[in-house]
Write a structure and sequence with these properties.
By secondary structure, this protein is an alpha+beta fold. The chain contains four helices and three strands, in the order βββαααα. Bound molecules: zinc ion.
């Protein structure tokens, strides 16, 4: 598995998050997931986001990149609405550009 941060191939398995295999890079010591994410993982990320964890915290909990969370939030407006209802929260203005 190639490191998505530095491109090194010297990586090793590093446990699992939401059932997704995680990898750690021996060169830059950062962790990453395989490029393919499951729908369930995306849903978990959006739930954390809706619970007010914020993009960067959600990213670190789920083990995905900040950009990935941002993209999922942008791409999943319908799913977000649905999850909001499931969580019983009122829709509110969210600033997806916050750091
Ligand atoms: Zn690396």
């Amino acid at each position: 598995m190639k490191c998505k941060h530095c491109g090194s191939k010297k990586t090793r398995k590093n446990g699992k998050t939401y059932g997704i295999q995680r990898y750690m890079c021996n060169k830059c010591s950062r962790t990453f997931s395989p490029p393919k994410y499951t729908a369930e993982m995306r849903k978990n990320v959006l739930i954390h986001y809706l619970k007010g964890y914020g993009v960067s915290k959600t990213a670190s909990i789920a083990g995905v990149s900040y950009t990935t969370v941002l993209n999922w939030v942008k791409d999943s407006s319908e799913l977000l609405e649905q999850l909001r209802k499931e969580l019983g929260e009122k829709p509110e203005e969210t600033d997806i550009n916050e750091k």
